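Structure tokens please, single chain.
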Amino acid sequence: MESFDTITANMYPWKRYAENKQLETMLVLFADTKKAHARVGDPQEIQRYLDYAEDNQASFDWVQLHSGFWFNHAPLKNYPDAGIEVDEETNSFVDKVIRLCKGKGKKVSYMLGNFTPLDQLLKAYPQVRNLNNGLFWQLLYDAAYGILTRFPQLDELSLYFFESMNLIHYNNFFKCMNYGLDIDEEMMEKHPDQILKQESQSWPYLSFADHLRMVLMAVASACRDLFYPQLGVKLCSMAGGGVQKSIWCF
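Here you go.
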């Protein structure tokens, strides 16, 4: 049997749950083969985790895969010059894991982050930087539509929020919360013109709640338009190894 030291590095819930032989209802694994901490590089690794949980008499209905990128799973038809290559290696891995989990009667959630446009897309389509013209939210919709089309057997699509590269360095709409621009007393004293310029470029501001709502609407609309009313869309803040807040849309 695998030891905790060798198998729990990519598995959540953590050791304290497994010691009591009570895993939570979702087994969380890291799917992105490009991440240093992701030992789950092939389906056999997934099989080892599932076997380990079963050997410890754990009961769970879901397997959640984690990845880091939002825009490289499917082509962006409305942005043909974006220069983004589809990551077929990760896609193939996710396909195999979905089949494996479905074969064991598990539901599959795929959680992605980094849902800001990649640099090459922004260079080709600079208008996407403006969060107030609707183009970024349409881009999110297009990407979600592509992901859901690419992986039709997914039961849930989830998004990192705070752990993702945020949007604020593209357009400082959280100015009132001092996000995006590193404002301190020294900067306010030495560079007031820069702060005023940033403020003027950021108008009209989007609030924190506006941001969540618009991200959720973009992804949920893609679910609706693909006739997946049963598919959950979740945005969450994960800190210290646990989901602190989540918003569900069905």
